[in-house]
What we know:
This protein is mainly β.
Amino acid sequence: xxxxxxxxxxxxxxxxxxxxxxxxxxxxxxxxxxxxxxxxxxxxxxxxxxxxxxxxxxxxxxxxxxxxxxxxxxxxxxxxxxxxxxxxxxxxxxxxxxxxxxxxxxxxxxxxxxxxxxxxxxxxxxxxxxxxxxxxxxxxxxxxxxxxxxxxxxxxxxxxxxxxxxxxxxxxxxxxxxxxxxxxxxxxx
Length: 189
């Protein structure tokens, strides 16, 4: 699937029925050699399950790091969102360090991801220094790397940008709500 995404092809293989397993989003950071794949198993069923798989390119080969799963319920429908909703982050320590000697000076790196839902006015996202176009479905998985600090890495700043380049909202590494939502809450109080 990563190869399909890199080639610009449809991420859903033709032979895989969407009613069984749907590829919702694939994000590949070619510079960092990492990828995240967001899948839904039995998407129209009451027992829908959501999976996020992480991969890392190591020795010219994509390797599976692991995945997380949960119920596939959609807590925030896109038409209800104003700008930006970031949820369900996770990650793994990269494979690179695992293949070195135990006392190697090579630093560990954290490969993290989040699920992002976008409002209708968002044209693209900035995830750290990367630019990701807003998909038609208004939801995506986003992957990044950061230094590993012993427990986990740090999420980069995520910025929602309008098609004209205007910043609509941003969420920092340790924030739970974006700036647009905070402004709305302060107006209501």
